[in-house]
Design brief:
185 residues; alpha+beta; 7-stranded mixed beta sheet; 26% helix; disordered N terminus
Length: 185
């Protein structure tokens, strides 16, 4: 470098350009490695802070293995009333190499917003399943079918039947979920 053409400003700008170029290259590669292009990212409805209307309904060997009697009757009562509410089903089959959850947000207008999530051991064997990240499914908008005639208030142990489910092209935001789940005056 010739000292007669040296200026602190050009030196600083040149150094800054080099730093930005290196950072861009490093960050570009890191982001590409962390999130492959073929992996869709979905808004995690489970993390939106929606208060469950019923205890989680869970299965292990058969339906309703945990959650108590309220977990068996509460979803049916919400279905009969036609009101908005949040229901979560946890599927925990043995021997512990897969688990899945389904969040059903009854919107109170004959529709439901649904998201599923799952995690599993890579090799199909045993692993520390609880420490693995969830794989989130797409948001789906479904019609809520009419409850069967056998369902009566306080005596309906069926989970709401959903039909005509369509994956959404654009996920709902947590704000949209909150607004949809809020009672209208």
């Amino acid at each position: 470098m010739r000292l007669d053409t040296f200026s602190p400003r050009s030196f600083l700008l040149g150094g800054l350009s080099l730093v930005l170029a290196l950072a861009s290259t490093a960050c570009g590669n890191a982001v590409q490695d962390e999130l492959p292009e073929n992996t869709p990212a979905h808004v995690d409805l489970f993390a939106c802070g929606v208060q469950l209307s019923c205890p989680a309904y869970c299965t292990h060997l058969s339906y309703g293995d945990c959650g108590g009697m309220e977990a068996l009757s509460c979803p049916g009562d919400l279905w009969l009333e036609g009101v908005s509410g949040a229901i979560e089903m946890n599927d925990r089959p043995g021997p512990g190499n897969w688990m899945g959850d389904k969040l059903t947000l009854l919107l109170g207008d004959g529709r439901a917003l649904v998201q599923s999530r799952s995690r599993s051991c890579d090799d199909g064997g045993s692993c520390a399943l609880g420490s693995l990240p969830w794989e989130l499914g797409a948001h789906e908008l479904c019609d809520v079918a009419a409850p069967p005639a056998t369902c009566q208030p306080g005596n309906c142990s069926e989970f709401p039947k959903l039909e005509n489910c369509v994956p959404l092209e654009t996920d709902w935001t947590c704000g949209e979920v909150s607004a949809a789940m809020s009672p209208t005056p």
